[in-house]
Amino acid sequence: MKILDIAFKDIKHSLGSGFGIVMMFIVPIMIPAIIYVAFGGALDGSANSSGFDIAVTRVVVANLDRAGEESAGAILTEFLQSANLKSLLQTSIVDDEATARNRVSTQQADVAVIIPADFSQAAFTGSGESNVVMVHDPVSTIGPLIVKQLLAQFADGFSGARITLDVAAQQLGPLEAATAQAIAAQYAQWAQAQGQQQSNGQHPVLTVQAPPVKAAARNTASMMSSMTVGMLVFFAFFTAAFMAESILKEDEDGTLPRLFTTPAARATILGGKFTAIFLMVTVQVAVVMLISSLLFRITWGDPLLVVLSVVGLVICAAGFGLFLLSFIKNTRQAGPIIGGVLTVTSMLGGLYSMTIPNPPAFMDTMSLFLPQGWVMRSWKLTLNGGQLIEVLLPVLVAVVIGAVLFGIGTLNFRRRYA
Amino acid sequence: MRIIDLALKDIQQLVRDRKALLFLVAMPILFTVFMGIMLSPPAPVSDARLPIGFINQDQSGTLGAAFRSLLESSEAVKPIEVAQSTAENNDATRGGELVRDGKIAALVIVPDRFSAALLADEPTKAIVIVDANQQAGQTANSALSTATNRLLGAIEAARLSTANQPEKFDTALQSALAAWQKPPIGVTVETLNAPKEEKNPALGGFKQSAPGMLVQFTIFGLTTTATILVIERKSRTLQRMLTTSMRRWEIIAGHLLAMFTVVLLQQTLLVVFAQVFLNVNYLAQPLATLLVMVSFGAWIAALGLFISTIAKTDEQAVMWSLLAMFILTALAGAWFPLDVTGQLFNTIGHLTPGAWAMDGFQNIVVRGLGLASVVVPALVLWGFAALFFGLAVWRFKFE
């Protein structure tokens, strides 16, 4: 009973600290929340990603193709200014290439499209080749990709008409203007129908299927859930260390030696402090998971596997925190050591690279040597719908690591306060 | 002179603190390297195109092979064999697994009688197995769409040009397919101001991580610099200083100067590290870099002063500094370029000073621009510095 009294006193004390509240509950939710706002539905893995409102790309066009109002350059310019693309592009026109490049250089535009003088000639008269030049700001990434795709589609439209006329000329001999015009018009009509069909999501010759899932897998972790778990694990380890630091603080403040003068056994007092670590980490994990579920609609996976992963996390984090603090002499040392050790081990344990699609291979190997790596393994499997047998191994390893570290930490503290 | 003495005292106090040095220098370097490695594109290889598994079951016609040939000429993808056994089903299963495991970007299965059906205008579809949630999958989808459109375009070209001479259809089709291998109209992409050896559209990881982590850990440094003032207020040292001949503004200026100097030194170390070891070319424009550093440092010092006025304890100073760091660095685009976020986030980001510091640094190291390009970011940072300084002076209490 005394153990619980001491534990609750420690927890109450920690919850009274603004710093503790911020680091245990606010930051682990705030970081994923900021990312969630930044990327909207694009990260939650749901089919409906309408929450992600992509930034409009500022395009500046220099049309050097002066072949008249019906020139290929004029058609391309009109296409880039069309109402259909208003939500993606904000297109303006300039007279020359230098001005267009300057607009990108001075960040008044993200992309410059330079239509060459020979564009109509290459597109309509069947002679020569021509390339539209797209110049983009090196900091912009998504905007230029969109513009490039649009330009490539457009260029293919003209190429198709040109190839059709070339082939027709090869088969039929030199074409009369009316015949050429008729063939080009028919091709344009066909291309337009194709484009229409594809923009409605119906590809004429392709059927897209998702890859098969692993026999064990029932769902796929979204980037949002992966990132939230990364933060959850990092701050659970932080909380354990932060709670264990209270032992040193009480020692420095003289309250711990005073407690040792009471009839309560030293084992009971230390046991109460250790219990506080477990309870606090458990409460933190539960609160962060609950709020994250509500805010980010995270699907954690099979409840049994989630409970196992939580157990692995709590035991491992508590053991690691106690172990780490048992080697630290005073609270002055504690800050940098907790910060430094947790940052490095979490980094190498893969906590910060959960959402990176193809992290370097050495990261996976490195994570095998770190407690955080095993905890993350169990969570990854849980989020990805792994089976009980798969999740059990990393959970067991995490529990064993936690228990061993907890044992060493306890021995160190007992020796110190013997 | 007294201001400088006071500043030197603060700096000495910080330098003696090994914790401060760890957070001011070692951590940002570690994070810069780690994040840079994570964000960097893979090392260039001779053929960096995404592999696409290609299973051609259209043995009776030529259009399956033509489809593959059009994919061969793509700049984004390259078709590869996935067959390990002669059984078609096994090939498809294995290919699907390779897509699932991220070994190939997509798998294309061209069905039997694909050519015959297409030429007879009958419905037929090639199956594409792709993870459309992955960037590689989206790229593959786009490349496949382009290739099939060209294939269909070639068939249409052949049809239109041989409408009255169907016996010439095959020859016309071959001509059209050959022409599509090198289309007459194309698109050339240029990255503005990219150095010649870096004509790679992918942004180097260190060019994002170096300024990003500089911005983050400079704000983080306030956990140590801002606490000095709070501790002095708590221990009544500030009050005691009022009994000396030092004026109030001199005391504030002394502490502000210390914070500014520490932040500037920290930035200098990070800039030199990134320049020497990570090839992030800050020193291509030393004056521009210095202007951004000084302007950013002025804002950080003002923020530190402000935090020290709202925090009652050193623990609160750390708490406010951490909150400022997490919120302002995320909004600044220090963790990921603002360009890839939504419109709203991008706009809000530029209402915060960190985003302007990032703009200033990136104008130098990514865009390769000069002094003129950082004038606006610097002015905005000075504006924020004035605002926070005003707030701090307004709230400042000596006891």
Describe the structure.
The complex is a heterodimer of chains A (418) and B (399). With 418 residues, chain A is of the alpha/beta class. Chain A has two domains: 2-44 and 213-416, no CATH class; 57-199, abc type-2 transporter like fold. Chain A contains 15 helices and five strands. Chain A has helices at residues 2-15, 18-39, 72-80, 97-105, 119-124, 142-172, 177-199, 223-253, 255-260, 266-296, 303-326, 331-348, 361-367, 371-383, 388-416, and strands at 57-63, 89-94, 111-115, 130-136, 206-209. A four-stranded mixed beta sheet of chain A has the order 2-1-3-4, with helices on both faces. Mean pLDDT of chain A is 86; it is low at 45-51. Chain B folds into two domains: 2-40 and 208-396, no CATH class; 50-181, 3-Layer(aba) Sandwich (D-Maltodextrin-Binding Protein, domain 2). In chain B, 64% of the residues lie in helices and 7% in strands. Chain B has 16 helices and five strands. Chain B has a four-stranded mixed beta sheet, with helices on both faces. In chain B, strand 1, helix 3 and strand 2 form a beta-alpha-beta unit. The two termini of chain B are 24 Å apart. Mean pLDDT of chain B is 86; it is low at 199-203. Chains A and B meet through helix 2, helix 4, helix 5, strand 4 and helix 6 of A and helix 2, helix 4, strand 4, helix 6 and helix 7 of B. Strand 4 of chain A pairs parallel with strand 5 of chain B.
Give the helix/strand layout:
The complex is a heterodimer of chains A (418) and B (399).
Chain A (H helix, E strand, L loop, with lengths): L1 H14 L2 H22 L17 E7 L8 H9 L8 E6 L2 H9 L5 E5 L3 H6 L5 E7 L5 H31 L4 H23 L6 E4 L13 H31 L1 H6 L5 H31 L6 H24 L4 H18 L12 H7 L3 H13 L4 H29 L2
Parallel strand pairs in A: 1-2, 1-3
Antiparallel strand pairs in A: 3-4
Helix pairs in contact in A: 1-10, 2-8, 2-10, 6-7, 8-10, 8-11, 8-12, 8-14, 10-11, 11-14, 11-15, 14-15
Chain B lengths: L1 H15 L1 H22 L10 E7 L6 H10 L4 E4 L7 H13 L5 E5 L3 H6 L6 E5 L4 H27 L7 H12 L4 E7 L13 H16 L1 H13 L2 H5 L6 H30 L8 H25 L3 H19 L10 H7 L3 H13 L9 H21 L4
Parallel strand pairs in B: 1-2, 1-3
Antiparallel strand pairs in B: 3-4
